């Protein structure tokens, strides 16, 4: 049995709970940065360690080839990518998957505070295939 889909599941569950609280208070229609700020505040209030604009080294064959900045990193473990588009597009999900493959991180969440709240939890445990363990949306 592959347990990689459960990697940091408790933490991502708490992050998704915070996402729902932010969406419940702000709703849709604000610029992306408002949601980044609100989610960072919400998670900080819950005693999580937050890094904003966190640089992540990306490697190709054990050589660092560039750096990508995550919107948020929670407890030095989970990457959060935030969008505020009409609908969640595959580009943000693909970017997160590629960052997970090319970095030391294994778990990330893409959140879209668009017309409808949407999120996707992605896992790429080193040595296993990519899994989509949790996704959801709210009306």
Structure description:
There is one protein chain. The chain has one domain (4-138). It contains three helices and six strands; from the N terminus they run ααβββαβββ. It has helices spanning 9-26, 32-45, 90-102; strands at 50-60, 63-74, 78-83, 107-113, 117-123, 131-138. β2 (63-74) and β3 form a beta hairpin. It is 32% helix and 37% strand. The termini are far apart. α1 (9-26) packs across α2. A six-stranded mixed β-sheet has the order 1-2-3-4-5-6, with helices on both faces. The chain has 139 residues and is an alpha+beta fold.
List keywords for this structure.
32% helix; 6-stranded mixed β-sheet; 3 helices; alpha+beta; 139 residues; globular
Overall tally of structural domains: 1
The radius of gyration over CA amounts to 14 Å
Strand content: 35-45%
Shape assignment: globular
Structural class: alpha+beta
Return the string of H and E elements.
Answer: HHEEEHEEE
How much helix is in the residues? 25-40%
Total helix count?
3
Instruction: Please count the beta strands (DSSP E, at least 2 residues each).
Output: 6
Distance between the termini: 34 Å
Biggest sheet: strand arrangement:
1-2-3-4-5-6
Characterize the main sheet.
6 strands, mixed
List low-pLDDT spans.
Answer: 128-133
Give the overall average pLDDT: 89
């Amino acid at each position: 049995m592959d347990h990689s889909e459960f990697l940091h599941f408790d933490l991502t569950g708490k992050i998704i709970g915070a996402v729902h609280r932010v969406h419940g208070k702000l709703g849709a229609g604000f610029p992306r940065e408002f949601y980044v700020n609100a989610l960072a505040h919400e998670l900080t209030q819950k005693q999580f360690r937050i890094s904003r604009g966190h640089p992540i080294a990306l490697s190709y064959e054990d050589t660092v080839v560039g750096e990508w900045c995550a919107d948020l990193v929670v407890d030095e473990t989970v990457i959060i990518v935030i969008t505020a588009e009409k609908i969640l597009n595959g580009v943000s999900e693909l970017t997160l998957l590629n960052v997970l493959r090319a970095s030391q991180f294994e778990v990330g969440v893409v959140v879209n505070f668009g017309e409808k709240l949407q999120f996707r939890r992605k896992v790429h445990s080193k040595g296993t295939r990519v899994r989509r363990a949790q996704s959801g949306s709210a009306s």
